[in-house]
Amino acid sequence: MLYLLAILFVPAALTAKCCGPAKFSATMYVVGTTLPANGVPNLFEYDLRLFYDYNGKMARTQMEIAGKEQISLLDLSKNISYNLYDGHCTMENTTQQAQSPCVPDEAQLVGHQMMGSANYSLAVDTWRWATSDLTIKFTVTNDTCTIVQMSMYGNIGGSPGETTYLLSDITEGALPNGIFNIPPECRSHENGAGPVVG
User: Fold this and answer.
1) DSSP 8-class letter at 188
2) What percent of the chain is modeled with pLDDT above 70?
3) Which domains can be identified in the chain, with CATH numbers?
4) Which residues neighbour 34 within 8 Å (Cβ) at sequence distance 6 or greater?
5) Tens of pLDDT along 91-128?
6) Which of 32, 60, 111, 135 is the most exposed place for a label (fewest CB within 10 A)?
7) DSSP assignment letter at 189
8) Which pTM was predicted?
9) Residue 121 contacts residue 103 (beta carbons within 8 Å)
């Protein structure tokens, strides 16, 4: 567990915006809620394994649902996502954009923190970034600009809500060979034999 030991707020001018690794893998914990029009809160919480390549415009997540693995492969160069669960694959069009590894120009520095214990601490910088729909706060390591935490609130998928992402077991740089290969169950979709949803 990470403990926030100290927060030192400094002027934004003293910290330059940075760029993190273009390729990385991590374990990601996600928790949040949205409030749809029916007024019943939609609560969610899950763990997944994330593989990301900004330059290659590819992302992959792996998680367990009801004891079975779900794999999602996002090809942002073709605007297509493949979702494999229990041996069945669906392919969808997507309008998602590749998320830059750099701190956005519009972001404002919130401050410097030390995360961890006295003997095992991690120096991080926290930034705040507001868009027309969302307010986003994210934390990156001070030395390599690797993201370790992000929270957002506002309009999420058309409903008010809040989501927090915590990253751990981060590996920067080279990714496993073939990690972005299209699963065999999805190749019939790629060749036009199956329907595209979305």
Assistant:
1) H
2) 87
3) 4-197 (2.50.20.30)
4) 41, 42, 156, 157, 159, 160, 161
5) 999 888 888 899 999 999 999 999 888 888 899 999 99
6) 135
7) H
8) 0.80
9) no
The residue with tokens 């994210």 is 138
Residues 6+ apart with CB under 8 A from 119: none
Residue type present at position 111? G
Tokens of 19: 């760029």
- Read off φ and ψ for residue 188, nearest 5 degrees: -65, -35
- C-alpha 66/C-alpha 125 separation (Å) is 37
One-letter identity of residue 145: C
Amino acid sitting at position 7? I
Q: Which residues are CB-neighbours of 167 under 8 A, at least 6 positions away?
A: 26, 27, 28, 29, 50, 147, 148, 149
Specify the residue for token string 């809040």. 162
Q: CB atoms < 10 A from the CB of 103, how many?
A: 22
Task: List strand residue ranges (DSSP E) for 95-188, in order.
Answer: 108-116, 121-130, 134-141, 147-156, 159-172
Calculate the average pLDDT of the chain: 85
Rounded Cα gap, residues 153 and 138, in angstroms:
12
Which residue numbers in the chain have pLDDT < 70? 1-16, 189-198
